[in-house]
């Protein structure tokens, strides 16, 4: 193939092969500083980049609901819808989630999850009644990993809880997971496949941004994933170290062609057209929210 033809194929095919088809957006209170005109431009550019869906990580973070039904987040998402973007709306996130799951035994973890799922169900009903945004799915921001869910009984209990929760929703449930190298790749793939078989859209974070696992290990986990499991291509490089508040800088997604898997990108603020969000965040002296 000639270089000219190859370049043409990349130019014409790149949007389809590597577009940010689904992109995560993680709201921060500092994002309220952006104007409607800025949000309109962001969503227009998001659609131009080939995206068809925005996965909003949460619509309530602790006591904050980002202004509620008439607030800045709801207004921004209405602009996204006006650009033809589908919305997967995040539910409620407990800021102490990662601390709590570190502290709890299996029985305590099951009780805690049940409480959080109840709060997220109430959040979903509020979004339906008050925000009145068309949605194509609901995202549960409590991430899973193979450290806290290493014991089989925890994974089985969680699967039952998520299946029951999903059945009470009026659109597909989405959830994300990451690996720290505790489960064997084949066991991890089987676990995530069982969640997918229960009707849940599972998103596996590729770990390129955090760099917690070596590339060879990450690829082993990726290769063991069933086709329905989506791959989150991390578009950042973590700059903070252990014990520090999470900080990162933009980086192009590293994951190669995902084959049969759906793909998404984390996250909007790290993409070139989302730079205004990141710049505003830094000028507001607000740190990144650790995604795991």
Key traits:
TIM Barrel; eight-stranded parallel sheet; two-stranded parallel ribbon; 12 strands; 41% helix
Structural topology:
Layout: H1 3-18, E1 22-25, H2 36-48, E2 53-56, E3 60-61, H3 72-82, E4 86-90, E5 92-93, H4 97-103, H5 106-131, E6 137-145, H6 152-167, E7 173-178, H7 185-197, E8 200-205, H8 215-223, E9 230-234, E10 236-238, E11 248-250, E12 263-266, H9 275-283
Parallel strand pairs: 1-2, 2-4, 3-5, 4-6, 6-7, 7-8, 8-9, 9-12
Antiparallel strand pairs: 10-11
Helix pairs in contact: 2-3, 5-6, 7-8
Structural notes for this entry:
This protein has 292 residues and is of the alpha/beta class. The chain has a single domain, classed as TIM Barrel. The chain has nine helices and twelve strands. It has helices at residues 3-18, 36-48, 72-82, 97-103, 106-131, 152-167, 185-197, 215-223, 275-283, and strands at 22-25, 53-56, 60-61, 86-90, 92-93, 137-145, 173-178, 200-205, 230-234, 236-238, 248-250, 263-266. Strands 1-2-4-6-7-8-9-12 form an eight-stranded parallel β-sheet. Strands 3-5 form a two-stranded parallel ribbon. Strands 10-11 form a two-stranded antiparallel sheet. Helix 2 links the parallel strand 1 and strand 2 (53-56).
């Amino acid at each position: 193939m000639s270089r000219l033809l190859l370049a043409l194929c990349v130019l014409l095919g790149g949007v389809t092969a590597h577009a940010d088809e689904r992109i995560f957006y993680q709201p921060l209170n500092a994002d309220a500083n952006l104007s409607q005109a800025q949000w309109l431009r962001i969503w227009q550019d998001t659609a131009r980049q080939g995206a068809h869906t925005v996965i909003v990580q949460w619509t309530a973070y602790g006591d904050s609901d980002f202004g509620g039904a008439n607030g800045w987040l709801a207004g921004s998402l209405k602009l996204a819808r006006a650009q033809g973007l589908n919305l997967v709306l995040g539910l409620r996130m407990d800021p102490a989630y990662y601390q709590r799951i570190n502290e709890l035994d299996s029985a305590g973890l099951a009780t805690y999850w049940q409480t959080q799922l109840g709060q997220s169900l109430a959040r979903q009903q509020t979004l339906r009644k008050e925000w009145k945004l068309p949605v194509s799915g609901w995202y549960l921001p409590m991430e899973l990993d193979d450290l806290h869910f290493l014991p089989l009984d925890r994974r089985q209990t969680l699967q039952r809880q998520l299946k029951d929760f999903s059945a009470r929703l009026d659109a597909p449930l989405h959830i994300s997971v990451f690996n720290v190298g505790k489960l064997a790749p084949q066991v991890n793939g089987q676990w995530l496949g069982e969640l997918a078989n229960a009707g849940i859209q599972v998103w596996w974070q590729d770990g390129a941004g955090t760099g917690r696992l070596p590339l060879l290990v990450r690829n082993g986990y990726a290769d063991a994933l069933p086709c329905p499991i989506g791959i989150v291509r991390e578009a950042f490089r973590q700059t903070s170290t252990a014990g520090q508040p999470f900080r990162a800088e933009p980086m192009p997604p590293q994951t190669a062609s995902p084959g049969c898997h759906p793909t998404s990108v984390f996250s909007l603020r790290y993409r070139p057209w989302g730079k205004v969000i990141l710049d505003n965040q830094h000028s507001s002296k607000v740190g990144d929210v650790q995604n795991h």
